[in-house]
Structure formats: structure tokens, C-alpha cells
Specification:
There is one protein chain. The protein has twelve helices and seven strands. The chain is an alpha+beta fold and 366 residues long. It has three domains: 66 residues, no CATH class; 55 residues; 160 residues, Gcn5-related N-acetyltransferase (GNAT) (Aminopeptidase, 3-Layer(aba) Sandwich), CATH 3.40.630.30. A hairpin with a 2-residue loop joins strand 2 and strand 3. Helix 2 packs across helix 3 and helix 5 runs antiparallel to helix 6. The longest helix has 20 residues. It is globular, with a radius of gyration of 24 Å.
Length: 366
Amino acid sequence: MRQMGLRPDLSRTLDSQTFREYYYLKEELADFCRANHLPASGGKQELTERIACFLDTGRVQQPAVKRTAAHKTAASGITRESIIEDSFVCTEAHRAFFRKEIGNSFSFNVQFQQWLKANAGETYDDAIAAYYTILEAKKAGKSSIGKQFEYNAYIRDFFADNPGKTLDEAIQCWKYKKSIKGHNRYERSDLAAQDDRENPGRNEEYICRIASLEEMNRKWDYEIRQHPGEENWIEWKGEAIESFRTGRSIPYYGILDGTVICEATAVLYPDFPQDGGKPDEHTVELCAFRTIKTYRGKGYFSELMRFMLKDLKQKGYTKAVVGVEPEEKLNKEIYRHWGFTEHICTGTETYPDGTVIDVEFYGRQL
């Protein structure tokens, strides 16, 4: 019987099915290609398909030919007439150009980055026009934004009146309020919804614990299946597994009747600036908050959060930090309720596919 978690070496003796069952770093895939005289260029998904074909058939797949934009311009010399590069990646030079042309309010929002990646060969003047179009489209969604603010106002008023209650209890009352006739503002009478609140664990086994490597592999494979064709998730799995193996992170799972339904990760020695510009060995960054949709708003994640914060405090950590995108006002409100009120710094995060997002970091004492 094959031992769980014992990954075979990547060699010509594997078949494609066995090869696909395990995670290999992009560098390992490229090394295999070079050792077996296969093209080693391309993204991880392309390398995976090339190797799988080779293992089963011995045939060498050539890399796809990509169109090169005419008059490709170095980022340092961008003008409005310059051509958007193939495989666009956000850089500080690009950010400086757009801020010069648009103003300091410019930010690389996700929609704009997707437009840039999908429009290689167009000009940067076209990109500026597209940016304003995206902003106008967001403004056109005022009705949905208004509803979002209505929710935010309800949650804020709920906590002002009930400082000792949880976010899940607030959401329970909000759902009740939406289901009845009348306005959607918070009223103390909404607490009647708590009488019907399900109690997680009443007739079920729900436990919170630090994940095992086997559990991590299963959970990450589930997430990858939920995001087909999104290579970021494959890269994130590799990073998470490696970080856990090297003792740089602690994954926490909420497990209901044997199934992982929610998770969070504590990153040790985070690399964002602390006092004096140096990481603090007593600080952790909390990230990768995920709950399966069916189980949201039922108290499971709040219980996991309490377990994680208590465990980290017992391990000697004194401060926890979370990151949030500037426009995620609801998440900011949730984090404030959890005590993350101290603004630490503002920076950027780069996804494996090159997408760059702005991030604000907030901290709390443990």
C-alpha cells in the first residue's frame, strides 16, 4: 500500500495520472524538462501539460507561440502612445506613469489589471480611457453599493448596542431584518432572531485544531477544484505546504463531522515593516480566511478565530495583524470588531500571475 504524503521523485518512470496526483514546484518541472530535452519555457500549467504528454506518449510538445506587441516599450519609457506589453505585469514604473497621467488617486484595481492583461497591443492611451470607463461603471452601480452601505450601517449599529456579541449573531439578526416588512435599520427588537439561532455543535462534532499535512493537501485540492483554470491556486498550495513544512506558518482548521469547513493561517515572522522597519518575532500575520458557503454565518469561523488567537497567545506571540484591500469596507468593519484597529502600514501584494493589489495592515494585541 502506498504511504500517504510520500511524493515520488519526478522521473520518466511515472505515468501522467500519478504525476498529476502530486504537487511539484515550477522549478522542478523546468529541471525535468531540461534533463529530458523538453522546452522549459512557459507557465506552470503549460509545463505540467507538456510533461504529462511526454510521460504517456514520449512526444515533445513545443511551447505555444505568443504574439509580440509591435514597438514594445520598456516600462521606464512609457508614453500614451506606447504599446501595452504581452504578459503584462504591474511595476512601480507603470504605477508612476498612471499616477502622472491620472493623478494620485490612481490604484491598480483588479478590473483594470484584467483589462491590461487582456489588451496587449493596445496603447496606454487606450488603457487610460479604459480606467475611466471602469470607474464610471462602478459609479453606475450605486444601487448595489447603497445596499452594501445599508448592511455596513446595520452591523455597526448592532455592535454599538451589543458590544459583547459576535459577528455571526449580528449577521443572524440582519438576515431576520431583511426577511420582514419595513426598513432595514437596526432595532433592539431584532435580537428576537437569536432565539431561533442554531447552536453549532448541539447535535454534531465541531472541533478546531492545527491542521496536519494530509489535511492541508486535501483542503487545497478542494480549493483548486473550486477554481478551475486559475493557476494562482496551484501556486498558493505549493507556497502554503512549503511554509508549513519549514515552520513559517501555522494552519488552523475548523472541522465539522470530519470535514474541513473553515480555515485561517498564521504567518510567523511576517515580512511587512514593523517598528524600526524590522519584522517582530512576536508578531503574526493572519490570512487565508475561508469558510465553505453553506456554513457561513453560523458561528463556526468565529469559534475558529477565538481558538487561533488563544493558541497563538499561549505560544508567546503578543500581536496579530491582518491585511485588507482599501475598498473592502465590510471586511474592515469585521476586523475592527475583532479588535484590529491599529493601522500598521500600507503596501502591495503580488499574485503568482502578476496581479498586484494594494493592502492595508491592521493590528491588535493578543
